[in-house]
């Protein structure tokens, strides 16, 4: 059954430093290096300078925004300092943790009840068994005005049984990045990228024949989550359904699911042959280097890195940004909706004040500038940085498409599906098993996971 509960110039300098740094510093939550670094170590916590408070004891909050520490510091430190000046009765400590480190330790942290007061949480883990009952309904604690700026379809997607548990800040759907110069070399119109699966195959064939460049780049490396999410995009585009229904049952054990995997295997003949060795960051580098013509399975988080390589105005660069080509079901798109959640009841009121501040238009703008997030507030849309046409593609990806969330929204152990399914998808991409076998093995894996958690 469905689970019930399951602040600007200084920032530009910081952003510039971040964008020109090493590859890990240019990646965002959706990136594999940022999402799954080799080490899971936790950096030291930082307590920012206190502002003299009025009489009375301060409410102490901890906040965690997992990811690359350079970006976290660039965003959170000045924002939290300003918040404490405006709220002298609250003291905020920033915790630093890689995505990989947080993923590995959060079950233990929640079990011990020592989770941060404010966490940047995943939409896929709203019913996670370790966090269940500890991620609080958030509308009780935040200023309702911040919800008015968020598209309603986004808010609806983030709810469980009509209850909102986190404020989505990063909203992203998959898009297609491509090299306009390689399209021109292949005799293709760089201003008319493929819009459907059929057009994508035809363009890939022409690029291969005319240029010798590998047409397609896919993130096929297992263990990084991006492989599964890329495959899920194709399945969703064929079925028009999430991979699991509200009862955690497979929806792709049918002809539509098979059509999706067969198409993906057809596309593999035009993909870089080392696809199973590449995460998103690796594929992105291939595109920057001109070794591939099209990159699939990436989103807004890539923008700062591409701007560092091609210039701020991508509209006038060799890099194109387009909607992901659609499949038989039409305009369906995989999406991720991550944002701020309250995870300690005793400090919920103060946490709500902090999240309200973090979600103010000016602060959201800072966050999206550093992390490559999609602008959605009227304030952001007035800023020169977001006046480029390519941003309309990202808005289309979450507004003009029906959004299908990551696997596990209603499941107590969402990470289990990534662990079990990615090796199967990788075997298929390598040609070790065919599409039918991949579906059979995936269904068995899902059934086993459900059985372990008492889901019949």
Binned strand content: 5-15%
Extract low-pLDDT stretches: 1-29, 33-42, 49-54
Given the C-alpha coordinates, what overall shape results? globular
Question: Any guess at the CATH architecture of the domain at 9-172 and 337-401?
Answer: 3-Layer(aba) Sandwich
Question: Quick one: CATH superfamily of the domain at 9-172 and 337-401?
Answer: Periplasmic binding protein-like II
Query: What characterizes the major β-sheet?
Result: 7 strands, mixed
Radius of gyration: 22 Å
Mean pLDDT: 87
Oligomer: single chain
Region (Disordered): 25-57
Protein name: Extracellular solute-binding protein
Subcellular location: Cell envelope
Keywords: Signal, Transport
Explain what the structure shows.
This protein has 17 helices and 13 strands. Strands 1, 2, 3, 4, 7, 12 and 13 form a seven-stranded mixed beta sheet that branches. The N terminus is likely disordered. Helix content is 41%, strand content 14%. It has a domain of 229 residues: 3-Layer(aba) Sandwich (D-Maltodextrin-Binding Protein, domain 2), CATH 3.40.190.10. It has 456 residues and is an alpha/beta fold.
């Amino acid at each position: 059954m469905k689970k019930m509960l399951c602040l600007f110039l200084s920032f530009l300098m910081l952003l510039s430093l971040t964008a020109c740094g090493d590859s890990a510093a240019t990646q965002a939550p959706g990136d594999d290096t940022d999402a799954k670094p080799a080490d899971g170590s936790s950096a030291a916590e930082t307590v920012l300078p206190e502002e003299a408070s009025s009489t009375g004891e301060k409410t102490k909050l901890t906040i965690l925004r997992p990811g690359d520490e350079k970006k976290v510091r660039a965003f959170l430190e000045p924002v939290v300092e300003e918040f404490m000046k405006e709220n002298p009765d609250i003291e905020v400590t920033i915790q630093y943790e890689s995505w990989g480190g947080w993923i590995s330790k959060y079950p233990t942290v929640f079990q011990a009840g020592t989770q941060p007061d404010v966490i940047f949480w995943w939409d896929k883990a709203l019913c996670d068994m370790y966090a269940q009952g500890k991620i609080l309904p958030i509308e009780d604690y935040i200023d309702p005005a911040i919800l008015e700026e968020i598209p309603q379809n986004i808010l609806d997607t983030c709810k469980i049984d009509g209850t909102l548990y986190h404020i989505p800040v990063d909203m992203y759907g998959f898009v297609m990045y491509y090299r306009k110069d390689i399209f021109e070399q292949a005799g293709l119109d760089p201003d008319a990228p493929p819009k459907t699966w059929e057009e994508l195959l035809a363009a890939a064939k022409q690029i291969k024949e005319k240029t010798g460049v590998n047409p397609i780049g896919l993130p096929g490396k297992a263990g990084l989550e991006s492989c599964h999410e890329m495959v899920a995009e194709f399945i969703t585009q064929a079925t028009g359904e999430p991979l699991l229904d509200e009862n955690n049952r497979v929806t792709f054990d049918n002809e539509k699911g098979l059509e999706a995997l067969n198409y993906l295997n057809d596309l593999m003949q035009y993909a870089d042959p080392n696809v199973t060795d590449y995460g998103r960051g690796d594929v992105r580098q291939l595109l920057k280097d001109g070794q591939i013509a099209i990159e699939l399975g990436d989103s807004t988080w890539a923008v700062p890195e591409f701007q560092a390589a091609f210039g701020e105005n991508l509209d006038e660069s060799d890099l194109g940004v387009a909607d992901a080509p659609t499949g038989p079901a039409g305009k369906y798109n995989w999406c991720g909706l991550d944002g701020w959640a309250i995870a300690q009841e005793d400090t919920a009121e103060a946490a709500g004040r902090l999240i309200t501040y973090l979600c103010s238009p000016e602060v959201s703008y800072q966050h999206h500038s550093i992390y490559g997030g999609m602008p959605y507030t009227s304030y952001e849309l007035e800023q020169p940085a977001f006046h480029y046409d390519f941003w309309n593609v990202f808005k289309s990806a979450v507004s003009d498409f029906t959004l299908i969330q990551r696997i596990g929204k209603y499941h107590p152990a969402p990470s289990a599906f990534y662990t079990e399914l990615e090796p199967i998808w990788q075997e298929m991409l390598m040609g070790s098993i065919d599409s039918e076998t991949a579906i059979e093995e995936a269904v068995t894996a899902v059934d086993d996971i459900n059985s372990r958690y008492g889901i019949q």
